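Our preliminary data section would be incomplete without showing what the modeling component actually yields. Below, a chain of 214 amino acids is followed by its predicted structure, encoded as tokens that our downstream tools consume directly.
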Amino acid sequence: MRRALTRPARRAGAVLALLLTVAGCGIRGTSVPVDAGGAPSRVSCKAQEAAGVPEVPVGVPVRIYLVCSSGLVPVERTVSLPKGGTAEDRPEMARTLLNELRQQPAPGEVEAGFETAVPEDLTVSGPRGDDPEDALRLNIRPEDLPSFALAQLVCTYGTRMPVDGKRAAVLGGPDDAAPRHYDCSDAVLRHPDIARNAAWGSPLPDAGRTTGKD
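Predicted structure:
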């Protein structure tokens, strides 16, 4: 009888000791094995150098916005831009900046987590008809662009070519619809998918009418 009682007691003591050891290590027991996998990968969003990005011999430093970690982050480029900076120069400046946005980031930037959502076939031209002089026309309607791509355009254009002194852009599509005003706010930089909200772009004064054609 004594042996029968001692054996379960020993087993209970062993189980108790094991539980105390686990509790002392701060580990919770689980009913099934758990494979936690590798450590989560994190990106720095800080490219040490834009290796592989061609620079013009003599150019102007500009800031473009790329996608990184679900937000927009500025990176530096050196490009050739018109010297005048007049309203007539805006379309050429816009094309130069768009060309930088369409290109895939350099290897060093990719390693840091950068990417672009701007379509390779996107083009831009100047205002037409009754458009304001600071308007830009895209070959794709702004609302039809990927939300991150539209945010990249607005913030890049708004930084280099402000509208009324603000970080904003006036963009229209290939149709006769009036261009709309888009602000690059801090909220847009943090959450570029705000472009899915139709209320982001605000109509311009007298935008109820259609614009004329070339």
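The helical segments are 2-24, 90-102, 107-111, 147-160, 186-190. The longest helix spans residues 2-24. Preliminary results of this kind motivate Aim 1 of the renewal.
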